[in-house]
C-alpha cells in the first residue's frame, strides 16, 4: 500500500516522521510532495527510500492520501489533483475548517492529529464518510493507533473535541509556563521552576491514566485545611469562567475557519 502526503509543513512533517520513526510505515511505501523542496532534505537524508514527487503524482499513485496543506490552500490542491485521483484512493483531510463534502471524491475521512504523536501519545480524532469501507476505516485507525490513541467521532463533533485534543497540548504547555512564571516572579530560577512543573504535569498525567481519576488525585493531595486546599479554592472559583471563555474563543475561531474554508467544491 502506497501512502502519500501532500504538504510537508508543520503537521505534515510531524505525521510523516512519526509514522516512519515508530515503524508504522515503511519508507519505501511513503510518497511526499512539498512546495518547498529544501524542507524535504532532512527527510531524504534520514529515509532515502521515501519518494519525493509532485502533487499530481502523489495523488495518482497513492492508495491512502493525506492532504496536509493549509485550509486556504485546499481548494487549489483539490482542483489540481481531482483529474488524476484514483478511484480506489482513500483521501484524508486534516483541516478542521474544511468539510469532507468539499472533496471531489466520496471515499473521504478526516483526521485531526496532535503534535504529541511525535512521542507516540495523545489522541487523534477520526471521522469517516459513509462511503469509506470498514476495511479502509480500520486501516486508517490502526495507522494512528501506532502513534497514540484514536477516537472516532462524527464530523459535527470535531469542533469541540479538537479543542481538547489538538489544541490541548498548547493549552497544557501554557499552564506549565504560567505556573513556572508565577514561581519565578517570587524568586525561583525560571528554568528550574519549569522543569519541576513539567515533571509534575507528566507524573500527574500518568497517575490519572493508570491509577486515579482527576478528582481522586485532588482528594489524595488536598487534605482538609491544608495548603493545597487553599490553592484549589482559587482554581475552582476562577477556572469555570476562564475555561468557558477559552472554549468559546476556540469554537468561534473554528466556525470562522469553516466559513473561510468553504471552497464550494462538491463530490
Explain what the structure shows.
The chain has helices at residues 10-21, 41-46, 55-61, 71-81, 134-145, 158-165, 168-184, 190-210, 214-221, 227-261, and strands spanning 3-6, 30-33, 51-53, 64-67, 90-93, 108-112, 123-128, 149-152. Residues 261-267 have low confidence and may be disordered. The protein has 267 residues and is of the alpha/beta class. The chain has an 8-stranded mixed sheet, sandwiched between helices. Helix 7 (168-184) crosses helix 8. It contains 10 helices and 8 strands. It folds into 2 domains: 3-157, Rossmann fold (3-Layer(aba) Sandwich), CATH 3.40.50.720; 168-257, ProC C-terminal domain-like (ProC C-terminal domain-like fold, Orthogonal Bundle).
CATH topology of the largest domain: Rossmann fold
Number of domains: 2
CATH class of the largest domain: Alpha Beta
CATH superfamily of the largest domain: NAD(P)-binding Rossmann-like Domain
Q: Rg, please?
A: 21 Å
Note the total helix count: 10
Question: How much is the average pLDDT?
Answer: 92
**Number of β-strand runs:** 8
Task: Summarize the biggest pleated sheet.
Answer: 8 strands, mixed
Strand order of the largest sheet: 3-2-1-4-5-6-7-8
Gross CATH architecture of the largest domain:
3-Layer(aba) Sandwich
Note the run of SSEs as H and E.
Answer: EHEHEHEHEEEHEHHHHH
Q: Give the end-to-end Cα distance, rounded to a whole number of Å.
A: 25 Å
Low-confidence stretches: 261-267
Basic shape: elongated
What percentage of residues falls in helices of 4 or more residues? 40-55%
Strand-residue proportion: 5-15%
Structural category: alpha/beta
Amino acid at each position: 500500500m502506497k501512502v502519500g502526503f501532500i504538504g510537508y509543513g508543520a503537521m505534515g512533517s510531524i505525521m510523516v516522521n512519526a509514522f516512519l520513526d515508530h515503524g508504522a510505515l515503511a519508507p519505501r511505501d511513503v510518497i511526499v510532495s512539498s512546495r518547498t523542496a529544501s524542507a524535504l532534505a532532512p527527510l531524504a537524508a534520514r529515509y532515502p527510500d521515501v519518494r519525493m514527487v509532485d502533487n499530481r503524482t502523489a495523488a495518482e499513485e497513492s492508495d491512502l492520501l493525506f492532504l496536509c496543506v493549509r485550509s486556504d490552500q485546499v481548494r487549489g490542491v483539490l482542483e489540481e489533483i481531482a483529474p488524476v485521483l484514483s478511484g480506489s484512493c482513500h483521501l484524508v483531510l486534516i483541516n478542521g475548517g474544511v468539510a469532507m463534502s468539499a472533496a471531489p471524491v466520496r471515499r473521504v475521512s478526516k483526521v485531526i492529529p496532535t503534535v504529541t504523536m511525535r512521542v507516540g501519545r495523545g489522541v487523534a480524532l477520526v471521522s469517516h464518510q459513509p462511503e469509506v469501507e470498514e476495511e479502509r476505516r480500520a486501516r486508517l485507525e490502526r495507522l494512528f493507533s501506532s502513534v497514540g490513541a484514536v477516537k472516532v467521532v462524527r464530523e459535527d463533533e470535531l469542533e469541540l473535541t479538537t479543542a481538547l485534543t489538538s489544541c490541548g497540548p498548547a493549552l497544557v504547555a501554557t499552564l506549565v509556563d504560567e505556573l513556572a512564571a508565577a514561581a519565578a516572579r517570587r524568586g525561583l530560577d525560571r528554568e528550574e521552576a519549569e522543569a519541576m512543573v513539567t515533571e509534575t504535569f507528566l507524573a500527574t498525567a500518568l497517575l490519572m491514566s493508570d491509577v486515579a481519576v482527576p478528582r481522586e488525585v485532588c482528594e489524595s493531595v488536598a487534605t482538609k485545611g491544608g495548603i493545597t486546599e487553599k490553592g484549589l479554592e482559587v482554581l475552582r472559583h476562577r477556572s469555570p469562567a476562564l475555561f468557558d471563555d477559552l472554549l468559546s474563543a476556540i469554537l468561534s475561531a473554528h466556525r470562522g475557519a469553516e466559513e473561510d474554508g468553504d471552497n464550494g467544491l462538491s463530490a
